[in-house]
Design a protein that fits this description.
By secondary structure, this protein is an alpha/beta fold. The chain is built from 12 helices and 12 strands.
Length: 357
């Protein structure tokens, strides 16, 4: 592994970044920000001899970690002067010790600035999942398609990621399920559409958040694919890593705005780069030679980059202006929607501990 550094290592010009922030975002952004999609990466959650793959973003993290302290430092640098809070969870991967990762997230959530979700695999028993939730005070969980064994990640179905035993707990306790949907066509896949709707209807007390708007990073993937989803009141979306204002404008016009959560995918969003649409596809143009999905490295260093975080904010701002979001709706998007959801889930959890439902 490369030598440890003090924070997520980028070569973007920090003076230029500060100018971007002051010019484009300081006055426009609300004073309170809730980032509803934050990965905390703790080195102790990995085997002692674990080495990240050669082009893994984890090689850019101090000691291979992105801790609570790293997150707060990054937030202070990227969003200076704002009151930052986060909904956090571990970094999913088959090599991660979920017990350790979830215990760390629970410890972070002792800080009132954070709420947390547990990483879960379909191999985790209902008893284990319930213990993580009830003993550690977590508000739900995040399954991931790569944690389904014996099957290629893009061939996994949603029920294979989320067994009924786990969804029954989410429904009983009214938990948040952060769903990173599988299959190559993502939101546009008819089987995904059917399974998402079936999940929402079968477990109406669970709150299902489609991460990355169902991974709809380019326009043709979202157009025409929100009709059934928007009718289910327990289906939400987050905006993590969306750099495309066209996708966001469509969402703001076609989906209930009170069920949209701001999120960025930290620490990935702290890297330098931008997602672009190419021929009904998307690609991450990267400042560094890092593999995150369909990434293209600027090996000749011809582009001056800023954070993905700022590219996400730029896309949100342009889409919000075109779709006519009010100041109150912006404040709800960046803070109140997520906070109201988390407070509601927390209240249900407290009621459940008192013996009610």
């Amino acid at each position: 592994m490369e030598p440890p550094v003090a924070q997520v290592r980028v070569t973007v010009d920090e003076e230029v970044n500060r100018e971007i922030y002051e010019r484009e975002f300081r006055e426009w952004l609300p004073e309170r920000i809730l980032d509803a999609h934050v990965h905390l990466v703790h080195r102790d959650s990995y085997p002692a001899d674990y080495e990240p793959p050669p082009r893994s973003y984890q090689r850019l993290l101090a000691n291979g970690s992105f801790t609570e302290e790293d997150c707060l430092e990054a937030a202070a640098r990227i969003l200076p002067g704002k009151d930052f809070r986060g909904l956090c969870f571990g970094s999913p991967g088959p090599e991660v010790n979920r017990e350790h990762a979830n215990r760390y997230v629970a410890r972070v959530c002792e800080d009132e600035r954070f709420c947390g979700l547990a990483l879960v695999s379909p191999d985790d028993s209902a008893e284990t999942v319930r213990r993580w939730i009830e003993e550690w005070g977590l508000l739900g969980y995040k399954p991931y398609h790569s944690l389904v064994r014996r099957k290629r990640a893009e061939e996994v179905s949603i029920p294979e990621m989320l067994p009924a035993s786990q969804m029954q707990i989410a429904d009983e306790l009214g938990l948040v399920v952060m769903l990173h949907i599988p299959r190559a066509r993502r939101l546009a896949d008819p089987d995904n559409q059917r399974e998402i709707v079936a999940l929402a209807e079968a477990y109406p007390r669970a709150v299902i958040v489609l991460a990355h708007i169902g991974r709809a990073y380019y326009l043709s993937n979202v157009v025409g694919n929100l009709e059934e989803i928007r009718l289910r009141p327990n289906l939400y979306v987050d905006l993590a890593m969306l750099n495309h204002w066209e996708v966001l404008e469509y969402l703001f016009r076609e989906f209930p705005r009170e069920r949209i959560l701001f999120g960025t995918d930290m620490p990935i969003s702290c890297l330098g780069g931008k997602s672009v649409e190419i021929n009904d596809q998307y690609a991450y143009i990267m400042e560094q030679d890092v593999r995150i999905g369909s990434s293209i490295y600027d090996a000749e260093h011809v582009v001056r980059f800023t954070y993905f975080y700022y590219e996400e904010l730029r896309a949100i701002r342009k889409a919000a202006e075109r779709a006519g979001l009010s100041r109150d709706e912006l404040e709800a998007l960046f803070y109140h929607n997520g906070m109201a959801l988390l407070q509601r889930v927390s209240a249900r959890r407290a009621l459940g501990r008192g013996g009610g439902r």
